[in-house]
Automatic annotation (TrEMBL):
Listed Pfam families: BPD_transp_2
Keyword rRNA-binding recorded: no
Upper lineage: Bacteria, Pseudomonadati, Pseudomonadota, Betaproteobacteria, Burkholderiales
Name of protein: ABC transporter permease
One cellular component term from this protein's GO annotations in UniProt: plasma membrane
Membrane topology (UniProt): Multi-pass membrane protein
Record localization: Cell membrane
One of the record's GO molecular function terms: transmembrane transporter activity
Protein keywords: Cell membrane, Membrane, Transmembrane, Transmembrane helix
CDD domains: TM_PBP1_transp_TpRbsC_like
KW Cytoplasm (keyword) present: no
């Protein structure tokens, strides 16, 4: 039972990274923009957050630096695809490659650096409950903040005028433009907000999840987050559930190794990516379901003068 509680706890921690990044990408796609640069943004944000904590000792400052780095790179991406109408997919891939190369170059001097010792967080009373406490109530506050972000995003998208405008831009930018809404500025703000969340996820990886810096440490989480938005059919609550599912698959490999399951480590390492492919294949068998939930103008450029 203790090992199960440990598996649940580690799954929540791993799923938090995917959930935060996926929520950022969901905001982008709700506005009609596909950003394939999540991996690169998360790498640069991970470096920015780690370096900030090394020099300041403040985790909060590290999170802020990661969000700023993600928002800045997203703004560059947005300027290219929204105003210059470059291809969204090619530009996103370029951003991902740039982030991987730049973070490796700029982070070479931080490989041996160590972060200050982190305090252990425990929810009073609840954290002392046997089994349940270690599984659910002994996590970094960001785990619970992530859940709050999900509910906040649900409220914003489906209960506010601004959320309705954002969704209308993703469904029909021409109609939104005809009604007088600044479609390009709305899309840019959505892209930057999504980039900030991707940056927060990257900073969380390097400062809390695995408190160190090594080249390529995001290890495909940005790509899994992209797949997760489709898996969740662009619904924030489903994003959270899917993130915990993928987090559980990721942690299962270590759990199986810990209990002595005689399976080659390479096969266990492949499990999260195999699960991603299987889920996408299963979803693609019902294209109507995706078409109903997918923003109509996703990935399509908008020309105000047309």
């Amino acid at each position: 039972m203790e090992s199960i509680a440990l598996l649940i706890g580690s799954s929540l921690n791993a799923g938090t990274v995917l959930a935060i990044a996926s929520l950022g990408l969901l905001i982008n796609e709700k506005a009609g923009i596909v950003n394939l640069g999540a991996e690169g943004m998360m790498l640069c944000a991970a470096l920015a957050g780690f370096a900030t904590v090394v020099h300041t000792g403040s985790t909060v400052a590290g999170f802020a630096a990661g969000m700023a780095a993600g928002a800045f790179l997203a703004a560059l991406f947005g300027g290219l695809v929204i105003w210059l109408n470059t291809n969204q997919y090619a530009t996103g891939l370029a951003l991902s490659l740039f982030g991987a190369g730049f973070s490796a170059f700029a982070g070479s001097s931080y490989v041996q650096e160590k972060l200050p010792e982190q305090a252990q967080f425990v929810v009073p009373v609840l954290g002392d409950i046997p089994l349940v406490g270690p599984a659910l109530f002994r996590h970094h506050p960001m785990v619970y903040i992530c859940i709050g972000i999900v509910f906040g995003l649900i409220w914003f998208l489906y209960r506010t005028r601004a959320g309705l405008v954002l969704r209308s831009v993703g469904e029909s930018p021409e109609s939104a433009h005809a009604l007088g809404y600044p479609v390009r500025r709305i899309r840019l703000m959505a892209v930057m907000a999504g980039g900030a969340l991707c940056g927060l996820a990257g900073a969380y990886v390097s400062t809390i999840y695995t408190p160190l810096w090594v080249e390529g440490m995001i290890a495909g989480k940005g790509w899994i987050a992209l797949a997760l938005t489709t898996f969740a059919t662009w619904r924030p609550a489903r994003v959270l559930l899917g993130a915990y599912l993928f987090g559980g698959v990721t942690m299962l490999q270590f759990h199986l190794q810990g209990v002595g399951v005689n399976v080659p480590s390479q096969f266990l390492t492949m499990m999260p990516y195999v699960a991603t492919i299987v889920v996408l294949v299963l979803i693609s068998r019902n294209p109507t379901w995706i078409r109903i939930n997918m923003p109509t103008s996703i990935g399509k450029p908008f020309y105000p003068g047309a």
